[in-house]
Write a structure and sequence with these properties.
Length: 295
Amino acid sequence: MTGYRTDLAMERTVQPGGLGDGVNVTSQQQGDMETTWVRIDTPEAAKRLGKAQGVYWTLTHPRLPSLTPEERMVIAKEVSQMLRLLLPPQGDVLVLGLGNRHMTADALGDRVVSGVLVTRHLDDRRMRGVCAMAPGVLGITGVETAELALGLTQKLKPSAVLVIDALAAMETSHICTTIQLTDTGISPGSGVGNHRQGINTDWLQVPVIAIGIPMVVYASTIVRDALRRILAKESTIEQAQAMAEELAAGSVGDFVVTPRSIDELVQGLADMLALAINAALQPDFTLEELSHYLH
């Protein structure tokens, strides 16, 4: 599986060896929206797919970046309902927005956190205690994100940690059109080959839920898709992938590509995720009420 670099579990399952013992996949189509459950049950399956054991829920909509406000409310409601299933029903929640705020394609976590309703300091019984932070990246802070997460968790003692990060996809059609939730946590930078200490339940000793949207794809992926169209049945996906990596790799390594309109896309998707998170954490308020808190 080394040739397939992606953070999306559902993309792993459609590759050779993706299905089989220890992997269960269920999909449901509702109009243009498709939801997919991937459950990895065994260590052997986890190793085969290159993904941690656990549940991965994915929502895909081809027009996700350009939905009307009413349609975005529908998506936010779907995401919030799934979040409630994964999160403990009570207790404070720590929300962490990962990524580099100075790089738009990696700024999703930072943008989402700016819209999360923080309530831990308020004396309001209707509101669940929420604290939020965008810890930055190692290259700017000099501190591992996982170390910061551990320190905050040990001090604040939340019932769960919610982590938001930009992801990398293997299919260009999934860029900015897909939302993934998982109870396995996250390994910052893994999608672009920059593996760091994972932020997960084993590390923090509390449930860790990760939310992400693919914002980048490898240049070799684009070349691979073009080769597959050109070669048609004359080449397998593995041959096309190998040829693509050879063509795309250069003295500076493989390029990571993001859409031209990424600035606009990130902000709109971040607002939608923030609304979904607020709705999941504050069920006593309607989506319309919570939308007024976004800034």
